[in-house]
Amino acid sequence: MKILAVDYGDSRTGLAVCDPTEFLASPVTPQIEERSMGKVADKVVAAAKAQNAQLIVLGLPRNMDGTEGSRAQKCRKLGTLLEEKSGLPVRMWDERQTTITAAGILSENGTFGKKRKAVLDSVSATVILENYLAWRKNHPGQQ
To answer: pLDDT confidence of 111, banded at 50, 70, 90?
Structure first.
């Protein structure tokens, strides 16, 4: 199944997609630079259609103690909007530490400055998707 992952942010939103075998997750560029939730939702839905995605995985920013703050509430609102606009199921996925992991990957590859800013959220979405795919592999038949 093709799955689109979303790392929703205040300034940028990153996307990633996997192949139909759910083996390889790749960032989708360019990142979405919109700030309006409605415009972000429209662009995510367009990307889902372009990628023939059957599921959207939306990163859920939880606090380190597992609680949810205002950012998580915004993501849940976006999730509802994406379900309504796309007709696809949306799975919320814990995104704790994904930006740190993505920054580490980019540092290892020597990506800094403007180049890093241009891809960080898409790489974070890729990390979210890889984590979700690993979970699916260990929980067959579950979404």
So the answer is: low
